[in-house]
Each structure stands twice: as C-alpha cells, then as structure tokens.
Specification:
By secondary structure, the protein is an alpha+beta fold. The protein is built from 3 helices and 14 strands. The strands form 3 sheets. The protein has a 7-stranded mixed beta barrel. It has a 4-stranded antiparallel beta sheet with strand order 7-6-5-13, with no helix packed on it. It has a two-stranded antiparallel ribbon with strand order 2-3. Strand 10 and strand 11 (128-136) form a beta hairpin. Helix 2 packs across helix 3. It is globular, with a radius of gyration of 16 Å. The mean pLDDT is 94.
Length: 193
C-alpha cells in the first residue's frame, strides 16, 4: 500500500454552501461544522459530534436539501497543500477546509491522487474502507468568486475555473454499495491499494 495522506480534520456541510440564483448565487463556508468523527455509508456522510449526536451532511442522500448527484459525490476530500496554492494565488482568506470537503489531509509532499483503488485505512484497527468513483470535484463560479473576493471578468473567471480544476478544489468519492457503516477520524490515512 502507498500512503497518500493522513486525515487531520473531518467536517460536514449542514446546509448548502452555494445559495441564491443566477448572478446573485454566492458561496459561503458558514454552514461547515468540524466534527469528531464521520460515519460513512453508501448513502453519504454523517458527522458525529463529541456528545455523540449524528448530523447529516448536505451530500447525504437522506438530507432534505441533498446535493448528492447520482450518488457520485457523497464524500469529499482535499489536501492542506492545495490550500497553500489557493492562498498563494487568491489570498489568506482561503483557510484549509473552506472549500467544504469532508476530509482534510496532510501530505509529506505534493498531493498525488493516483488512478486506481483508493481506501481509508483506519488507525484504530488497520481496516480498509474502499472508495470508488473517485473524481476531481468540478469548480464552480460561486466558489471562484469567493476565492477572488468578488466578481470576475470573463477571462479571469475562466482562468480561476481552470486553476481550480483537476483536483485543486478537492475530490469526490463514494463507498461501494456492498459496504456498511464505517467511522473515520483524524489520524486515519488515505492509501492506494
């Protein structure tokens, strides 16, 4: 197995981060909530608070405002190193986690998400949670405007969207349908099988 990164934070989106419509559509990280653990299932993610309360992430299939598209984005992850690049380009307001991923990872070097079988290895018992349908999270205009701190002319918007593509904004994944419930927490690792 090849280590990709170690989980340093887990969080959920309690409600959509993008609100409004048309030109008034905007992005806000305010609904993010750092939790103690995640409960993963083929339906998506639940956050577990320190007092044991379970909260649905907005990408969970059962969330009343679900943003889960065809069960392809029930879980998301990103890397601290990507935030360093975001801050270098757009500014210090892009704090790690503000893109809304469920899992934030630290890496020893530049992040490398290889094609092939990925899994989360639990520190507690070494068990593996297989991730399927791993794909870069596509960037959007509201997040690009948030990064830039305001409206962008067309050419600058195109450049921002291109910069945020190919995994810079993070990755989506899901669990295989045959898998059950798993807890994930800081200290667990993302590995390539």
């Amino acid at each position: 197995m090849h280590l990709i990164g170690t989980i340093i934070r887990v969080q959920i989106q309690r409600s959509p981060l993008k609100t409004g419509s048309g030109a008034d559509r905007h992005y806000s990280p305010a609904p993010l909530l750092v939790v103690e653990k995640l409960l993963l299932s083929p339906e998506g993610v639940q956050g577990i608070t320190p007092d044991g309360v379970r909260l649905l992430d907005v990408h969970h299939l059962r969330h009343p405002q679900t943003r889960n598209r065809d069960n392809l984005n029930g879980l998301s992850f990103n890397f601290v190193a990507h935030y360093a690049a975001l801050q270098a380009r757009f500014g210090a307001h892009l704090v790690p986690g503000c893109a809304g991923e469920n899992i934030l990872l630290e890496t020893a070097g530049p992040p490398d998400v290889p094609a092939g079988a990925l899994a989360i290895q639990r520190a507690e018992d070494g068990s593996l949670i297989d991730l399927v349908q791993v794909q870069p999270a596509p960037p959007c205009e509201p997040f690009s405007r948030f990064c830039a701190g305001g409206p962008l002319p067309a050419a600058a918007m195109k450049a921002a969207l291109q910069f945020l593509d190919d995994g810079q904004r993070g990755y989506y994944a899901t669990l295989g349908a045959a898998q059950g419930l798993y807890t994930v927490q800081p200290g667990d690792r993302l590995v390539q099988r």
